[in-house]
Design a protein that fits this description.
mainly alpha; 12 helices
């Protein structure tokens, strides 16, 4: 059964939510080192699967692949940094700005069409993000800025994936992330190494496996559908962030936070439904025109 872009992104979002929890469970390991361990696992898995399936490892669009890997590396390091230091839902909420940056960058890089009404739906989601984030006094201005920079680079990485489209196998795109991050994070970690203790080894291994699955699903999603349609699906991870934050980390939230969550979900659902409606209308128009 072939899965559509929206379905793939929903699955990817769930696995990314598990990653968030696992990263927050290793607060004593520097974020750069966490990315290093995650990259080691991803590198081994990618090489093994690519070799087993006899897929050329380095692909053909190497410049775009390297740019995707570099932008994704910066985004992930900064995101992990905020995950470890502020409440889970707050860190995830700041990262929710990435679909907005993805859409803006997509207009410039890919000349993708965004309908005027979609901006209203993005606006609803953005207001929801502000409600969730703005009333969390546990987040300093420094973490807010770091989170926003992470979101910008994430948006850039997603557009590189879309620009590559189906010209590369999803696993090749995923492989370029550890290919870029390993030398960078390995070099930085060498000067500030913290040896994992006990179950931290298992958690770091799980982070690598879970992210590998999430990245693969996300890459296929961006290859199958437009950036502006797929990017907003990530907003649904706020539900996981609030639930995991409450259950696992005993993080409490206010009524305003839940109101913000509702606005985010409303914006996402309306955006997806509206985009699908416009696509159906476009296909009918083209079909009638041919006839």
């Amino acid at each position: 059964m072939k899965l559509q872009g929206v379905t793939l992104m929903l699955l990817a979002t769930f696995f990314f939510a598990l990653m968030n929890v696992l990263v927050k469970l290793v607060p004593g390991i520097p974020s750069v080192e966490v990315v290093f361990f995650r990259s080691v696992v991803s590198f081994v898995l990618s090489i093994g699967i690519l070799w087993w399936r006899r897929i050329p490892i380095f692909g053909t669009n190497r410049k775009l692949l390297l740019l995707r890997g570099a932008s994704g590396a910066i985004a992930l390091i900064l995101y992990f940094y905020t995950l470890q230091r502020i409440p889970l839902a707050s860190a995830v909420t700041i990262q929710f700005l990435s679909p907005i940056f993805t859409t803006i960058i997509g207009i410039i890089m890919l000349r993708e069409k965004v309908y005027p009404l979609q901006w209203l739906f993005f606006g609803l989601a953005f207001i929801g993000v502000i409600l969730v984030q703005g009333f969390d006094t546990r987040v300093s201005f420094e973490f807010l800025v770091i989170g926003i920079i992470a979101a910008i680079f994430a948006g850039l990485a997603y557009n590189f994936i879309r620009k590559i489209q189906t010209r590369e196998h999803p696993l090749v795109i995923v492989f370029y992330f550890p290919l870029v991050t390993l030398p960078i994070t390995g070099g930085i970690s060498a000067f500030d190494w913290v040896t994992p203790q006990g179950n931290e080894w298992g958690l770091l291994l799980l982070i690598g496996i879970v992210v590998q699955i999430a990245q693969y699903l996300m890459t296929m999603a961006y290859q199958k559908d437009e950036v502006s349609k797929i990017a907003s699906i990530k907003y649904t991870s706020i539900v996981y962030a609030l639930l995991f934050g409450w259950i696992v980390f005993d993080e409490n939230y206010t009524f305003i936070t839940y109101s913000g969550m509702g606005l985010v979900l409303l914006g996402v659902i309306l955006n997806v439904l509206y985009k699908q409606k416009k696509e159906r209308e476009k296909k009918l128009f083209l079909r009638d025109k041919k006839e």
